[in-house]
Design brief:
Layout lengths: L1 H38 L28 H9 L14 H6 L34 E2 H19 L12 H4 L7 H24 L23 H32 L7 H4 L5 E3 L2 E3 L3 H26 L5 H21 L33 H19 L1 H5 L10 H12 L5 H11 L11 H12 L10 H21 L3 H23 L2 H7 L1 H12 L14 H9 L1 H23 L8 H43 L21 H62 L15 H8 L13 H8 L6 H23 L7 H29 L6 E4 L8 E4 L1
Parallel strand pairs: 1-3
Antiparallel strand pairs: 2-3, 4-5
Length: 843
């Protein structure tokens, strides 16, 4: 048995030795093949024939077939403007569709022969140890460019993680550079959480919210990173002061001695914070300053994002400090290396999966990154000054929907960054309430009281409370839509209109409750309406008694109509900003817009007139009661002091004097209140006159485009040539969302009947347009007389409208003269001055 076992062992050993020999021979053959490949000088292949390494794919290389013939036959069947897509097609799909053969979208075409296919290949191509000073400053500035590219709407994989230093954090020798990379990534992480919580990002900014499998270091505490950065900040400041002191002492000692260039060098091939330093004394001092300003800058931008919403003073302080440090970064950028090693935007391009696009991107240049951050800084400084611009108080906030909506409009007109829009939504609206703890429901009810005939006593009624609770959600959604870009805000407004009719019906059902409780006063009001003098309000002839009675008998309905018209106007105006309307649609769109402005003006003017007249009526009744001696607040006549003996009634005289003084003081106070009410009416007429001015300009533009249409200066597509729909269907589609909240029977046929299109001549349209512009110019002059009462933005708006009215008036006169001479011309509406009302150029 033992002999058999020994024989078996010998055979197994022989087999093992043969296997080893075979393996060594194969290894030797592989090495020879590699050496032969290196020795052979092959001709450079084209990018299409380049062999891509298989280690980046999970599956073996696929075989490609030419499908150009199939694509050409498929495209021949399609018309211009048509696309092949599913029935459920959204804008997000359009942005993520890769264009085949386009270098920006197709990751497999025209690849750079020097590019990397995997992160492991980058090791050794850039320094992780023995990093030079200019390389450190260059990496810091390039990371800043990556941050700004990320905030401009690109994904994290091709911006921040294009830096190889973030891929090899553990292998970086310089701990300062490691902490700087971490705090730069932490800024993007905090900005991402703010954008996600606000949920205001658009399709183009959607990739900011995606992580694409990369770590944002959310588990890392931001305060811990800030503490380590502050330690380095203190150390560099200390070293800089000591260096400056030593240099001053050496300068005193060597005033009369000439130093050689070699003596000017501080240290040769020495390290400072694991950074190679081979600099002169002056260069080392500038290096410390430039290093310090970059550290402080990154620290401050992280600090102001961590500040609580109520502490806007600290937010402004950190923001100003970051902008100050940015100036020193600009001045020291010349000391950085130009070609920074360790950045490649396409390194993670193959790993990105849908819905993120695989497009080729480049980091923003340093100058554009500086401009972008300066723009963000200006936008955020505007947010810090919100209480001053809107006269807001944190605890006692007067809710003015018109004032807030104009503020949001002015803010969005500058096309703010996604971070600025996220912060404005978080500052104004949070879980605790509206702008620092104010309950939005209470503010809505105060707005109802300030607008209409409803007293504060009605706010305690259950139905009114339920209305306030119901309206809290849609009005909050409305203000959140204003924080978005124009495209998303228009879409959100249309979604808001879906359920707004339910709230309007709920509000109108409460009008009978107020009428029952106010039946006695409503009878007095009807007398007041008949005797309202024309001097109490501007444009009295446009307000009929019927409209005033509607505001009287339906206070909540008129208030809801005012809000609905504001939403509808905003929706129509957003179409001009997005360039959705064709030139042949302008006449019908401006006609509908003038109707909305008229509703807005009439409802607001009627409600304010009744409200102010009722207050004056009550104040006059109080004056009458005081004059007659029926004032219960003063002491009655029986309590007068009686004189005794030789007093000769002095006490009695004093009592009469006191009562007269109190009567005079109360009468003077009431007169002041009446004057104040008159001033309030003037302020309201300023706001309403702007709406009336907009209505007149819209009306004039309607007649203008109708005149050009009858002449033939506007090319109208015929129904047979139009591929998408007829003009009537287009108009109904434009106002489909608005008609849900404005209960009107306006349609395209009424637009034709109102203007007698086809029967009215162009001359009459020109005359009506010029008359409307003249009327608008008169309203503009009235507002110009009250310049002291206007805000700065209202003054600018008034001057722009004046230019629009004048230029259009001249263009219409020129066009009518050319038409009378039978000259042909074309028009070109331009939105250079105003974003809604164009200036018409005649060619």
């Amino acid at each position: 048995m033992s002999n058999k076992n020994t024989d078996q062992n010998q055979e197994t050993n022989k087999e093992k030795e043969t296997v080893k020999e075979i393996e060594t021979e194969t290894e030797k053959d592989k090495e020879k093949q590699k050496e032969e490949k290196i020795e052979k000088k092959e001709e450079p292949k084209s990018p299409f024939n380049k062999e891509i390494p298989l280690d980046i794919f999970d599956e073996p290389k696929e075989k490609w077939e030419d499908i150009s013939k199939v694509l050409s036959t498929a495209t021949s069947e399609l018309k211009i403007g048509q696309m092949v897509h599913k029935e459920i097609f959204i804008l997000d799909m359009l942005m993520t569709v890769p264009d085949i053969g386009v270098t920006k979208m197709d990751a497999g075409v025209f690849r750079d022969p020097n590019e990397f296919y995997s992160i492991d290949q980058t090791l050794g191509k850039f320094p992780l140890e023995n990093i030079e000073a200019d390389q450190v400053l260059g990496v810091m500035d390039k990371l800043f460019c990556a941050q700004m590219t990320y905030l401009s709407g690109e994904n994290i994989a091709q911006t921040m993680y294009s830096c190889f230093y973030l891929q090899y954090l553990d292998k970086i020798e310089c701990d300062l550079l490691k902490q700087f990379c971490l705090i730069s990534l932490k800024f993007c992480s905090i900005a991402r959480t703010l954008i996600l919580t606000s949920s205001i990002h658009q399709e183009g900014e959607y990739f900011i919210a995606m992580n694409l499998g990369y770590n944002y270091m959310d588990e890392l505490d931001a305060n811990q990173v800030l503490q380590t950065i502050t330690k380095y900040e203190k150390r560099i400041k200390k070293d800089l002061k000591e260096f400056q002191k030593n240099e001053k002492e050496k300068e005193k000692e060597n005033e009369n001695e000439n130093e050689n260039e070699n003596e000017k060098k501080k240290q040769n091939s020495k390290k400072y914070l694991d950074i190679n330093i081979d600099l002169t004394k002056i260069e080392f001092q500038t290096f410390l300053k430039s290093l310090l300003c970059r550290i402080i800058f990154q620290k401050k931008i992280v600090q102001y994002l961590l500040v609580k919403k109520t502490q806007l003073s600290n937010f402004k302080l950190f923001l100003n400090e970051s902008l100050l440090q940015l100036q020193s970064i600009i001045s020291t950028n010349k000391y950085c290396i130009k070609n920074v090693k360790g950045f490649y935007t396409d390194i993670n391009r193959r790993k990105i999966s849908p819905p993120a696009p695989i497009k080729k991107i480049e980091l923003l240049p340093f100058e554009k990154s500086i401009e972008l951050y300066q723009q963000i800084g200006k936008e955020l400084l505007v947010l810090c000054d919100v209480p001053k611009t809107l006269n807001l108080k944190v605890k006692n906030l007067k809710f003015n929907q018109f004032q807030l909506s104009t503020f949001f409009d002015e803010f969005n007109n500058k096309s703010p960054n996604v971070l600025s829009r996220a912060l404005i939504s978080l500052i104004f609206f949070d879980e605790d309430g509206f702008y620092g703890g104010n309950k939005l429901r209470e503010l809505i009810m105060d707005n109802l009281v300030n607008y209409s005939f409803v007293d504060k006593t009605f706010l305690n009624e259950k139905p009114i409370k339920q209305l306030g609770e119901a309206l809290e959600e849609p009005i909050l959604k409305f203000f959140l839509t204003l924080c978005n870009n124009r495209g998303r805000s228009r879409r959100n407004l249309s979604n808001l209109f879906e359920n707004w009719e339910i709230y309007v019906q709920h509000g109108t059902s409460l009008d009978h409750l107020i009428i029952l409780k106010k039946m006695e006063k409503i009878g007095l009001f009807e007398k007041i309406i008949r005797n309202i003098p024309k001097s109490t309000q501007s444009n009295r002839n446009l307000l009929s008694n019927a409209q005033l009675k509607i505001a009287l008998h339906r206070p909540i309905s008129s208030w809801m109509l005012d809000i609905s018209s504001e939403y509808a106007i905003r929706y129509i105006k957003s179409g001009f900003g997005l360039d959705l309307f064709s030139i042949f649609e302008y006449a019908s769109i401006y006609w509908y817009l003038s109707y909305l402005y008229l509703i807005k003006w009439q409802s607001n003017q009627a409600a304010k007139t009744i409200q102010s007249e009722y207050r004056k009526y009550e104040l006059r009744n109080e004056m009458k009661s005081i004059k007659k001696g029926h004032d219960f607040n003063t002491q009655p006549s029986s309590n007068k002091r009686k004189g005794k003996g030789k007093g000769k009634g002095k006490g009695k005289g004093k009592g009469k004097g006191r009562s007269k003084q109190t009567q005079k003081s109360k009468l003077s106070q009431i007169r002041k209140k009446i004057k104040m009410e008159g001033n309030l009416i003037q302020e309201r007429t300023i706001e309403n006159n702007f709406k009336f001015l907009y209505q007149l300009v819209s009306k004039a533009l309607t007649y203008s485009f109708l005149a050009f249409e009858t002449i033939g200066a506007i090319t109208i597509p015929e129904n047979s040539k139009v591929h998408f729909a007829s003009r009537e269907k287009i108009f109904q589609r434009r106002i489909a969302s608005v008609s849900k909240i404005i209960n009107s029977s306006l349609d395209y046929q009424k637009f034709i009947d109102a203007h007698s299109i086809g029967k009215t001549s162009a001359e009459s349209f020109f005359k009506q347009a010029i008359m409307s512009f003249d009327h608008a110019l008169n309203i503009q002059k009235k507002l110009q007389q009250k310049v002291n009462q206007l805000s700065q933005n209202e003054k600018l708006e008034l001057n722009v409208l004046k230019k629009v009215i004048f230029t259009n008036k001249i263009s219409l006169k020129l066009a009518s003269d050319m038409h009378s001479q039978n000259k042909k011309y074309t028009i070109e509406p331009r939105f250079d001055l105003h974003k809604v009302f164009p200036t018409i150029g005649v060619k």
